[in-house]
Design a protein that fits this description.
The chain starts with 8 loop residues before the first strand and ends with a helix. The longest helix has 18 residues. The protein has a domain of 180 residues: 3-Layer(aba) Sandwich (Rossmann fold). It is of the alpha/beta class. The protein contains 11 helices and 12 strands. It is globular and about 65 Å long.
Length: 314
């Protein structure tokens, strides 16, 4: 069991709401989201496509503006209107690895410019020699040859492109990296390499990750804690092993039941659960974000809370 009582909170999301469009066309993509990410951990955010995972990651890094709530980094608010100095700090200390390594790199730019673009913006006075040296080191750190700096993105495979994306994030010497489905566009044989690389870099540099994915089997391998999101609302949050051993929310149970099993006999016997939102009766008793046990949070009303507490007491 991990002791989180004395750990430093690096990033806090408080009552986050993200709305797209205005007036009658307004669509609330994320609502009432709350969680803390501790320094040095890998925090997982999992859910189906369209559930709002990427929207949350982009809101933390200020790509998507938030319509309510706030985001804190090291205790300072980084959402909404902030000073130029704070914006520069966010750019340097928080980086993002994007989902599609094909679309996230500028096809017309060489790798040395792609990787060093952030440095050019944040440290415009840096000498060219020092910048080139940093690019070479960043490429070496992700297992690429320094001479790759003179090539264009189309000359690389998907796995190599994703490594370039990771090098682009690392060169800024960030503390916090938001990894938005960084392996979903890669071949299965390359996925483990990228995950192992990310784990290695985390240990060496003390990085903190927000790891966004829809694949729970991958999440178990890399995350310390997981938040499960459904239609813009986080429904359950717990330590990874606890969530796998004792999933309480019906949606979490449905996601876990869909994980393929390596044993064909067990796979045939497996019963995949289908989540039905109709099982909740929220008309007169709306749900709240409750800490059902230490470190285990769930979205539930009073009736469900009593039921979950009874299950945990067995």
């Amino acid at each position: 069991m991990i002791d989180y009582t004395n750990r430093e909170v690096l990033c806090s999301v408080r009552d986050m709401e993200v709305t797209f469009g205005k007036g009658r066309k307004a669509f609330v993509a994320v609502k009432g989201v709350n969680f803390d990410i501790y320094k040095g951990e890998t925090f997982g955010l999992v859910g189906e496509s369209g559930s709002g995972k990427t929207t949350i990651g982009r809101a933390i890094i200020r790509i998507n503006p938030i319509s309510a709530g706030e985001v804190l980094f090291k205790g300072q608010r980084i959402s909404g209107k902030i000073s130029k100095e704070m914006d520069k700090m966010v750019t340097q200390k928080i980086q993002m690895i994007f989902q599609d390594p094909m679309a996230s790199l500028n096809e017309r730019a060489k790798v040395d410019y792609i990787v060093s673009e952030g440095l050019i913006n944040v440290h415009p006075d840096m000498k060219k020699e020092e910048r080139e040296e940093r690019v070479s080191k960043a490429l070496s750190d992700v297992g690429l040859l320094p001479e790759f700096a003179t090539r264009f993105p189309h000359e690389f495979s998907g796995g190599q492109r994703q490594r370039i994306g990771i090098a682009r994030a690392l060169i800024m010497e960030p503390e916090f990296i938001i990894a938005d489905e960084p392996i979903s566009a890669l071949d299965v044989s390359i996925r483990a390499q990228v995950l192992n690389l990310m784990s290695k870099l985390q240990k060496e540099r003390g990085l903190t990750y927000l790891f966004i994915a829809h694949d729970l089997s991958v999440m178990r391998f890399i995350t310390d804690r997981i938040a499960v999101i459904h239609k813009g609302v986080i429904v359950e949050l717990a330590e990874t092993e606890k969530l796998y051993a004792h999933p309480l929310h019906p949606y979490t149970q449905a996601l876990l039941s869909a994980i393929p099993m390596p044993d064909p006999d067990n796979e045939k016997k497996k019963v995949v659960k289908v989540y039905d939102p109709g099982v909740h009766h929220y008309e007169n008793d709306p749900p709240r974000w409750i800490e059902i046990e230490e470190g285990h949070f769930i979205m539930a009303n009073s009736e469900e809370e009593a039921k979950y507490r009874e299950i945990l007491s067995r």
